[in-house]
Amino acid sequence: MNMVLKSKAIIVFIALSFLLTVSNCAFAQEPFSLKVLTEKQSVYVGNSADYVLEVTNDLKDTKEVQLVPTISYNSWFATQENGTITVGPNETKNIPIRIVPPQGTSSGNLAITVSVCEVRSNICSDTFINIQVIDKSQLKILSFASEKPEYATGDSAEFQFRLENLGESNIVTYKLQIDAFDEDGNTVSNRTVDLDKIAPHSLYPRDGYASAVLVFDSIGHYDISAKIIDSTGGVVQTEMSEITITLPPKVQTEIINTVVVPGIFVETTTYSVQNRNSKQNAVEIEYPISVSQFIYSVSEEPEIVSYNGGKTFLWICDLAPQGDAGDSCEITITANYWILYLLVLVLILLAVYVYLEAEKPRVKKAHINKGEIHSIHIHVKNNSSKPLEDFTVKDTVPSILSVSGDFTVKPTTMKKKHNAVEITWNLGKLKGKEERILTYNAKPVVEVEGGISLPPVEITAVTSRGRKEKVRSKSIVMS
Fold first, then answer.
1. What class does CATH assign to 360-478?
2. How many Cα atoms occupy the beta-carbon half-sphere of 2 within 13 Å?
3. What is the per-residue pLDDT across 120-161, written as a single tens digit (0 to 9) for each?
4. What architecture does CATH give domain 253-339?
């Protein structure tokens, strides 16, 4: 009996131990609480999707943890900043995650398992990141048509496209190829547009717009093909439209070449004009006159017109249809800047001459008749604002006259020369703009008929720059 009771007790103890173990396992707390903060996203193959994983440490100790992506998608994780982080008890930290589906990934919704594990014990908690991968076939042309149904030959025909982009990132690897075919299937015009300007406004779907311009040279009906080309050159989608060119051609004259040969002294500008159509036309060529018109030489005489307060050379070229005589013309304008330089040089020399002449001292000789006695007046002036040194005045009195004195300023010397007397005044220094008047009396020795010629007065002085100046007055006649 006792043996039976003991056996039952052992069985009960084992059962209780098992239940306790199971209950501990069932109610064991996860070491980390994980939460994906970024909402569900879509991403194009080869582009990136950014997520933030919130990690809370539910354990009682500080732990070093690291992010462990699912082995199947390990190569998708382009960045994992701070690969190992330290999280304290009940502390929450964020781990940034960037996922890049590589080329060749099929489109679809994927759930990627992401584990956060304690570094030493390898205790982990798991969560899922849901991502929608979109391949190139999701980009579509929704509408495609020309802006107007009819255009003239030579005009720019604009085509508008409405595109659907299901991806999250900008379109950077696609091109839009537009080809125009005539009725025989020959390509007459084409254009390629890079689809890299569709900015994202929402996750998906969204619309974008693009445009392209084609030029047609002939009247006719044309089929227009629009293709989406991926980065490998493969055609993703093709749409067709059509356009009719029915309006008559416009007469257009084109300046096909403008050549400017610059230079310091001479600059040459050549205009070559040609009629590119089958109708007679005329074209105007304008050349603004920047300085005097007289410095220019031209191959053909122009008309000179006023424009915006200035003057302009104007030529009118009468052009015959292309291929006939006179279907083009050429105008050459040469700007002779050396004339300006020469004029400036002359003006500079003239200004220097005027300045030097203005700085020279002045002398004037006059006389006053007092009967037999004549009063001789000599007026000298320092015309410069700077002083003059060694200012000397020399006057010559012919022997037919005798000097009777009454000097206002006593002469420094009086010397007799052949048939004359030389009177010299050494005035020394004259201040800037200073004037002096020297006078003396003279009378004829004998009676003469007519007048007596008096020689000019000569003055000499040294400027502040050490230059010696010599100036003479005009001679006068004493009656």
1. mainly beta
2. 0
3. 887 888 888 888 877 654 567 778 888 887 777 767 788 887
4. Sandwich (2.60)
